[in-house]
Amino acid sequence: MNKKAFISRISDSFCNGEVSLFLGAGTSIDANFPKWSDLLEPCAEKLGLNISDVSDYFQLAQYFINEYGESELYSLINERINKIDYNSKALDIIVKMGFKSVWTTNFDKVIEKNFENQQININAIHDEKDLSSVNLMNRVNIFKLNGDIGHIDKIVISKSDIENYYLNHELFLSFFQRELMTNTFLFIGYSFKDEIVLKSIQKLNSYIGKNKKAFYAIMLDDSEKDKDFTLFVSDLEKRYNIKVLLVKDSDEIEEILRTIKDKIISKNIFISGSLDNFKDEAKAYEISKAICEKLIDSGYNIVTGFGKNIGYYVSGSSIQKLYSINESNIEKRLIMRPFAHDMSLEEDATYRDNLISNTKFTIVMYGQAIDTDNNTVISNGVLEEVKISEKQNNYIIPIGSTGYAAEKVALNIKDNITNYPYLENYIDKLCTENDPDKIAQLVLHIIREITNNIINQ
């Protein structure tokens, strides 16, 4: 499958439904996680073997256990994994793509740490008993099929562990197979060398019959080192219907992930604004409602940080609209992230940064606040969100006619219009139009034009 078609297929699947991610050891390598060959090289040396001659690492681990015992193997693994640097460029992109379900055979904590670094709540599931917490709201479920390093005596590392997997993890596998059936799966950094995944897909296909479900994988092209690699990839595609995109290095994986992310988040619209002025409230509600209804009808998703009053208008009118169209996935179409009052300045900045990072457009409305002397002022929070949006290359759409911060941003754009060519034909109208429906139509037109002419090129 060529790169453009692959990216388009994954992006469309993500926007139209649920996509689950499956991460293999390859995604932890740029966090200095040792490759299997490096991790188990000391085992091979103690057994008098050359690690380059070993193709089955589970069998190697089994030989080591047979000779030296499990505790010796666990000690060796612990020592090498504790040297990991948890920062990963690929995972930094993945975290911002909005996956709700991540499966992995990795037993390190690199994936969890990268989600936590972005202040995203996770639900790590590495044991059958953890499955009861799968549906926790606003958490990313991370399913660790091979266990967790924090419970090293239960990790899947040896041939015996693999052979007994279906007996010891029956419930885990049933969850995995159910998700294989319902969701589109994207595999990254996974070699398909163990039997767990392929057997599960084979079992699924035996139920489905000829109309096999398609799966997608990004894999490093190893054909120069492995003479069987091309045949192996062909087997994945023909027997398991796994559409494989071969890449030359990790930089290309990151480039592909960024492109997919940009396409996914181009459907996410961040609305920044605040209002503490009674006389403007009715008009602000009408504008918020008109914009949200137009965006939702056109397939866009709303993201709000719950700025004073504007956040309520945006969320309230969005929820009302989503219920009216019987939307089944409301939490995906409307992302609400209220700010805690006791946040430090650093926490506040990080929170705004993470919130905006999942969007491609920023609509600015009003942006008014009351200071400690009870004076009407421009909201610094809204201006900060605009600054973050520009840093993250969002397309800024200020409704200058609403005044305050939005007007200030619009006038700045007007004075520097060469930096905002997408608004050249619209900035005057954004500063003068007062009719809620016409404002909403104008905003939607700008977003569609940018999407068609820039993002989807």
From TrEMBL:
Domain NAD(+) hydrolase ThsA Sir2/TIR-associating SLOG: from-to ranges: 252-449
Q: Which SUPFAM superfamilies match?
A: DHS-like NAD/FAD-binding domain
Read off the Pfam families from this record: SIR2_2, STALD
Q: From which domain of life does this come?
A: Bacteria
What is the protein name for this chain? NAD(+) hydrolase ThsA Sir2/TIR-associating SLOG domain-containing protein
Question: What is this organism's lineage?
Answer: Bacteria, Bacillati, Bacillota, Bacilli, Lactobacillales
